[in-house]
Amino acid sequence: MEHETEIEEEKHLVEESSSIEAIRGEDSVSEQILDGDVEAKAEGTSDSTYETISDETSRVRETVIPPGIGQRIYEIDPLLSNHREHLDYRYGQYRRLRDSIDKNEGGLEKFSRGYEKLGFNRRKDIMCLWDFKCKRIARISEYGYTANVAARVLSQFRLIPYYLLWAALIGDFNNWNPNADVMTCDEFGVWEIFLPNNADGSPAIPHGSRVKIRMDTPTGTKDSIPAWIKFSVQAPGEIPYNGIYYDPPEEERYVFKHPRPKKPKSLRIYESHVGMSSKDPVINSYANFRDEVLPRIKKLGYNAVQIMAIQEHSYYASFGYHVTNFFAPSSRFGTPDELKSLIDKAHELGLVVLMDIVHSHASKNTLDGLNMFDGTDSCYFHSGPRGYHWMWDSRLFNYGQWEVLRYLLSNARWWLDEYKFDGFRFDGVTSMMYTHHGLQTVFTGNYNEYFGYATDVDAVVYLMLVNDLIHGLFPEAISVGEDVSGMPTFCIPVQDGGVGFDYRLHMAIADKWIEILKKRDEDWKMGDIIHTLTNRRWLEKCIAYAESHDQALVGDKTIAFWLMDKDMYDFMALDRPSTPLIDRGIALHKMIRLITMGLGGEGYLNFMGNEFGHPEWIDFPRGDQHLPDGSVIPGNNFSFDKCRRRFDLGDADYLRYRGMQEFDQAMQHLEEKYGFMTSEHQYISRKDEGDRIIVFERGDLVFVFNFHWSNSYSDYRVGCLKPGKYKVVLDSDDPLFGGFSRINHEAEYFTSEGLHDGRPRSFYIYAPSRTAVVYALAEDKVEPVDAEVSKTYLAD
């Protein structure tokens, strides 16, 4: 909250100077270029691409995002009235920022197009630049290049001192000569250089050239990648990355061909990582993921793919979470155009593409990241300890700075607009929303934990702004927040006073399953399972998952490994006898996933490979780590052996993994057919601790789970709402799924009147031990979602 004053001070300074006229003058020129006969195109965007997406682009640019009044949260949750002072203050800060952006920047839509003014850009004309934070800017003209570095810092209501003393554009194009292209600083603190085209009309900076900016800062001379760089590459034999001017010839630029799919009502997410998506021990590519993995995801029945590690990160083993270049897609996997091709192919298949975006922190790298960008620790980030995350060893953004807002909002807009992502999974949101970052803190659900001095209001307001932007400009876009705290109003629209996410990741479910799996079967509590799965806020949607990438990392175990451990190495082949541990593990693996999807939320997520119980763990290639105390954490000799996905195991019809994969596919198709995750009807009629039976209704389906390790029940009475004839539509004991065929799929179950378990009707079933069976009302003829669906897998 202390930095809210800074924004107001900056705004006051801007209003008192002639700089607003400079900004408005630039905007007016920009509008003439962008909306007139001459198109201004951002780096890497072609004429043909603009023609293909012009309808969406024009629609988005004309969008006005109206703020609401922010009061409906008190109707949705009356308990919030006890914290009205905090919540009204929070919404007031949001409104004040929106008003300032509207007045000084022309609205949120224009404000979020910072990448058209900053970074490398091609223009038909040269326009003034404006940026009153320490940013590194480089811009390109159609008839030449301009490179700019804005270096003014507003400090104590003064426009000086300039933190940069000298700057030059360097790179392959000038043999890295710092004296060849020295930049000049104008009265507004913008460092600039104009580079005309060569005599033959070719650009002064060729496509693919390495570029950096050399700067004299208060702490010495440094070479930095421009903060708004669109591509960066690690040269062979070098450690730091280099910025790349990415401007391919027209014929090499990817042209989007397929429209975005409509937002699914039921979201079934396949969480993935391009680099580790090969069955071989290599770094996979965007092209191979497009051709080999996307069709697999489609056949499995998922309708969304969430891709991790897109933003460039110099340290591969960070899983993409230590971002160095926020506007650059990772060059490890290919080029920006190959990423566009991947996304376009997903759209052709009807898959929504979500990006795992990191705005919660940044890499602490100083050579190729944002850290110490202007020679101080306060550019982009909080200064001192508040700007450092001790557990993640990374830098923390100052969301109260005007230019940080421009940078991050523009970053979200960039990925939606330029690459056609359909939404985001925001990482580390809990860390953002609290000054303690959720570390060494237990959230009990007491509202005082959410609305007090520990809340970082600046960060929460940023999240409101970015959700406002996402949904205002792209109404079909999806935003998912990774929050473990259970912040109230998290998934309520911003206009109603909420934070604005569509979904919250239901992180407690995965933690609960790990807790349960450490216990004996006899100690599993049905009520405990039900409580965790259903413990979510009214009108706030959740993405449920039994396990994600977090549980697959080295040092942890997947559910399959918790269940079957070392037996997975020797007893997964069908031509060898099974073991009790394998039989138990396969049965419970299926049950855990189905009950999580059935009760856990309005969406579902699975990390790639876990659908078939991928063995072992994920371990990125790494060397030994030498700690300051002299101790050494052993590496893995930079091996890729456990940094891949063995999809061949799930496809092999001679391995038991195949049965688990077939069940997951049938589970996805069941949800596609019946849409039970988003049904308003949900009723839990039985959670029997003695029988270990759970029965519930979701939509028009009746789910029956028998978690007992040995007891099977004949003529077991199950309550239901609707009268008629029921049939089996999914059976975990089907032999195709590695089961023992104890359920007759031809049987018909007729209801009888009479109250049972709080339901007006009931029918009798057979419930074998360690099975999950789903029944549907048979109006005419019900086709089971089982073998016939799954047999098509990989046969096409």
TrEMBL record:
**Main localization, broad class:** plastid
Q: Which reaction does it catalyse?
A: Transfers a segment of a (1->4)-alpha-D-glucan chain to a primary hydroxy group in a similar glucan chain
What keywords is this UniProt entry annotated with?
Amyloplast, Plastid, Transferase
Where does it reside? Answer: Plastid, Amyloplast
What the entry lists under Gene3D superfamilies is as follows: Glycosidases (3.20.20.80), Golgi alpha-mannosidase II (2.60.40.1180), Immunoglobulins (2.60.40.10)
Ranges where the record places region Disordered:
1-29
Give the record's pathway.
Glycan biosynthesis; starch biosynthesis
Any Gene Ontology biological process: starch metabolic process
Glycosyl hydrolase family 13 catalytic domain spans which residues? 280-644
EC annotation? 2.4.1.18
Designated name of the protein: 1,4-alpha-glucan branching enzyme
Organism of provenance = Sesamum radiatum
